[in-house]
Structure formats: structure tokens, C-alpha cells
Amino acid sequence: MSTHADSTSPLQALRDSLPTLTGATARAAAHIVADPATAGRESITRLAEAAGVSAATLTRLADLLGFDGFPALRAAIATEHGREVQGGWQRDIGTEIGPNDPPEQVLGVLVAAQHRAARQAMGAVDLRTADRVADWIAHAARIHLYGEWGDSVALHELYLRLLRIGRPVWWHEGAQAARVAAGLVGAGDVALALSRSGRDEIALDFLARARANGAHSVVITGDPTAQLATDADATLYTGTREGTAWTDHFAGRVGDTLTAALLWVLVAQRVPDAVGIPQNPTTITIGDTQ
């Protein structure tokens, strides 16, 4: 008898066996591999019908893999698939929320994550540094921002807010755009990057080039020990480091957004006459851009 049942996951055993199977047995194996969730719960009759084979074929397939009949194979497939689903969920979403949690529990976890991240940011953000960066931004002739993917969410809002109060600001994504932007700055200008991980090589290059041209280099990050942070003229630590799951990322975005919002308000305090003034009074009101 084969030892597949004892030594290998049933789904992996099926995948490994596919090249050597033929005819109805091959069709049955391919059907199970394509939809293990259904195979793990259907009766032998219904699964055979769906796969276009006989129940006897499924029994032979189970025997070939070393299982004591199809029910044993089906149970092993259900267990294995459940583990794969749970493992994938935990890698992506995290362990704080389960796939069967009710909506109110999911909401509670997300709210708690936001509150936790906000409290962490309150204790982590260096207010003197934030004040100094706000001075730089308020008086800069050019402000260039860089951030990609998830890092761009809070940064793009900062860009829009600064633009709204008349600051000469640009927002960039991609290595080429970042290099061009860094080449345009000079003394007194500001180059600001947001990188939760602190390991963004494009951001590192962007700030280094801008700094070499005399601009102030600023980073908002979740890792104050990263080279990106230690090389910058000013580092704003958000209090939430990069995590491995979506719930970690979701919580960290709160710190990013809070830090960027703090910067914007501090800049606005320095140019109060620019706040609330529409660029075209005939078409724009303050309510349109809030």
C-alpha cells in the first residue's frame, strides 16, 4: 500500500500523482485539485457526477493514494484544505479577525487597532521635529513628496491639503519621477518621503539626491532605526512599525495619517491668511474642499 496517506498531504499527493494517472482516474484527481473545498464535503456520488467519473473511480483513486476508501481521503482533503485556508487568512488578514467573525466583532477589532495606533503615534511623534519641519515647509520654494502604494495614502492627502493653502508642492511615485524631483530642489526646499518600513530604496535615493542639492530631507516612517531615517535631516516616527498582516497595515496607516495631518495643521498655523481662501472665488467654496 502507498504511504501517501501517512507522509504527504492529500492534496500534494494528488498533485504529485497527476502526471502518472490516465483516463477517468486522472479526471477525478484533477477535479479534486481544482476544487478541494467541494471535494472535502461532497458525497462520493455527487463528486463522481461532478467530475464525470464513477464512484468506483474515486474509490480506486483513494486506494492508489494509500487511503482506506474514499471517505478517508475526503476527510483528509477537508482537513488539509481547512489548514491552507486558515494559514492563508492569517498570513494576509492576521490573527485578530477570523473568517467567521460577525461584523460587530470585526468592527470592534478595527476600531481598537485604530485607537491603539493613534495612542502610539501620540507618544512617538517628536513635536519639536514636527515644528521644525513645518517651518521648512511653510517657507520652502519647492516641496516634493514621495511615497508609493500604501505609503502614498496619507502622503497624497498631505499633498492636497498643502496645495489647497497655496504651498508649491508636488507628489511623486516611481524611481524616475523621484530622481527628476530630487534634481529640481535647491537650498531651503523640502524633500519628504513616507515609508512605513523604512526600507524603500527609491525613497533613500530620492532624499540623498535632494539633500546633496541643499534641500531639507524629511522622512515619515515606522522604523526610526532604518538608514532612511538616520540619514534624513528630520525623522518623524509614527509609532507603528511595519507588520506582516493587513490588520497591522491598517493600524499603521492611522499613524501615517495622523502624523501627516499634524504637519499640515502646523504649516497652516504659519500661513493662516491662506486657509479658507478659494483660488477662484466664483467657483470654489471652502465646503467644496473640506
Mean pLDDT: 84
The first-level CATH class of the largest domain is given as Alpha Beta
The biggest beta sheet, please?
5 strands, parallel
Q: Count the strands? A: 5
Broad structural category: alpha/beta
**Any guess at the CATH architecture of the largest domain?**
3-Layer(aba) Sandwich
Multimer state: single chain
Order of helices and strands: HHHHHHHHHEHEHEHEHEH
Helix content: 55-70%
| Spans where pLDDT lies below 50 across 5 or more residues | 1-7, 281-290
**How many angstroms does the end-to-end distance come to?**
71 Å
Can you tell me the CATH topology of the largest domain? Answer: Rossmann fold
**CATH homologous superfamily descriptor of the largest domain:** Glucose-6-phosphate isomerase like protein, domain 1
Tell me the count of domains: 2
Order of strands side by side in the largest beta sheet?
2-1-3-4-5
User: Number of helical segments?
Assistant: 14
Radius of gyration: 28 Å
What does this molecule look like?
The chain has two domains: 4-92, Winged helix-like DNA-binding domain superfamily/Winged helix DNA-binding domain (Arc Repressor Mutant, subunit A); 104-289, Rossmann fold. The chain has 14 helices and five strands. It has helices at residues 4-7, 10-17, 23-34, 36-39, 44-51, 55-64, 70-92, 103-124, 127-139, 152-164, 175-184, 201-212, 227-231, 246-270, and strands spanning 143-146, 169-172, 190-195, 216-221, 234-237. Helix 2 (10-17) packs across helix 3 (23-34).
